[in-house]
Amino acid sequence: VIRVGLLGFGTIGSGVFKLLNNERELITRRLYNATGRNVEIQITKVLVLPDEYPPELPEELRVTDYNVILEDESIDIIVELIGGLNPATDFMMQAMDKGKHVVTANKYAIFTAQGALEAKADETDVHLRYEAAVAGAIPILRSITEGLIGDQIESVVGILNGSTNYILTGVKNGKTLEQALDEAKQNGYLEADPTADLEGYDAMHKLGILGYLITGKYPPASSIERKGIENITAQDIEKAKQNGQAYKLVARATKNADGEFTYSVKPEALSQDHPLYHTEGVLNTILLTSKYAKELVFTGYGAGSLETATAVSGDIVSIARDLHIC
Ligand code: HSE
């Protein structure tokens, strides 16, 4: 049995809990096929706030003090889904110091630590995985670090933030900005602090992580040109529509003449022949160009509970598999 301590039971945490329960048999069968052993994944403790009583969470799993999880030697994997910088970053560091593997969806913490979390995982010899941190359900990190491990990526162009794309699409289709923003919130697409989405910080964190996986080093925040959608009005969106264009928050990583990557996140009015024009609502798209594979396009849900839970669960199950193969 691989035991999991889940930190946070919000949009993604509750999705992971549901997915692992719903797909218990499938996952056990897949793990058997991969390892030849009967491996079961069990969530044994869930950290929530003292005043939080989610109805779907069995009382016997509910914990309000992180130390109870940290000191539980039977827990193999910590799944951090609290979000924000701290205490999330401290919790992950402490877990790795205790020899626990870590899975997270926290792009803000991963990007801001600029490699310190990965270094801690190396030092303590544990797995740290964060597929869900970039582009929700799209397995883009695996595609870069495994599928394209032998190729040279030359550029990334993408829509990496689902909520702003949902808002821009909604307004283009006749909703007011307030309506679209409110719906994005109701659907759980926005960060706890929505300015992270609206001002382009969230897309910048995700682009920075892609940059790290491609080049081996994190671009500092100060080196990424960043502009959000907060100054785009309904009139701007309507005017673009009349010209056959749609506004998108576009993230780019491009190699310059010296072979160095430069990074930007900013709104662009794209015309219909642009491959990102057709990415609507909460979808994300990533276009990769590389030396040998040439062009690859990935599209999928960039936010949402069960959609993002697939990426988190994939990390948990793959750690369980690797622990039994090694
Ligand atoms: N707030 C994020 C977004 C959630 O809108 O893309 C998924 O990372």
Q: What's the short version?
A:
By secondary structure, the chain is an alpha/beta fold. The chain has helices spanning 11-22, 24-35, 66-70, 88-97, 107-113, 116-124, 140-147, 162-172, 177-186, 195-198, 201-215, 234-242, 305-325, and strands at 2-7, 41-47, 62-63, 77-80, 101-104, 128-129, 153-159, 224-226, 245-255, 261-271, 283-290, 294-301. The two termini are 16 Å apart.
Bound molecules: L-homoserine
Strand content: 15-25%
* Assembly state (oligomeric): single chain
| Strand ordering within the main sheet | 3-2-1-4-5-6
Helix content: 40-55%
Query: Globular, elongated, flat, extended or rod-shaped: what is the shape?
Result: globular
Please tell me how large the radius of gyration is.
20 Å
H-E string? EHHEEHEHEHHEHEHHHHEHEEEEH
Count the helices. How many?
13
- Report the uncertain regions: none
Largest sheet: 6 strands, parallel
Distance between the termini: 16 Å
Calculate the mean pLDDT score and round it.
Answer: 98
Give the number of DSSP strands: 12
Kindly name the structural category. alpha/beta
